[in-house]
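User: For this week's homework, look closely at the record that follows, marking any run of repeated tokens, and judge whether sequence predicts the tokens.
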Amino acid sequence: MSRCSSLLPDEAVFANFRRQCLSTDSWLKKYDSSGMQVWIEVPAKKDKYSVGTRCKMTIKDVSAATMYDVLHDGQYRKEWDSNMMESYDIARLSANADVGYYSWRCPIIKGRDVVTLRSWQVKDDEYVIVNFSVKHPKHPPCSNFVRAVSILTGYLIKSTGPSSCTFIYLSQADPKGSIPKVVVNTATQILAPKVMKGVHQAAVKYSAWKQAHSPHQKPWLYPEQNTLPVMDPAELSIQRADSLENVDEVTQEDGQENEDSS
């Protein structure tokens, strides 16, 4: 595999992601109610700060294809994602891969941002989206946010009927900063199902919204519609969590308050 293409997910990456989404090994179920299950990953990864979370939701009123469209549609995300502060696609890397930026607000703690390489695959009745953090030469960490790291994050959507599907979200990430892992783990177990439910609610309304907003524009399905600039994947490199500084958020907040009061 050439250096140019080595960063792009291959079939092995998608297969590994599917396996982790469906595996019962190394995952401890923490919640199971009303069609929603939540697991945490055990034992812990070698990276003591990383957190592994998996959620599965049974959806009875939205098709797998619509759920997939909602996750891709950046314009629609502005309508439903209340945690998002800024999100944009930077460049396309191939017919089924791009690089993009996303920042979000966090309760109590400093906001986070990521630059990720995202890739997707559709096979029969199954839809997969995966992403991981990369370094982009023109989008380095900034002082306004703590740069988080996605080790492997994504969605597996499988059709169970014309208007039903199973919806799985898996995240292995390091939020960086100075928040104890046990706090992040607990918060993630609470927040992840809320995010899943939010995506589901958005999906219920998507078809009506899309009819009024470029209904035939879906570059994630039709690559010829993609107008992003093309970027050589060789210009990117994987963002390792240990290469980013762990910002002491408490000290930083205190310092900001002192500056504001001076």
User: Anything to note?
Assistant: DSSP finds five helices and eleven strands in the chain.
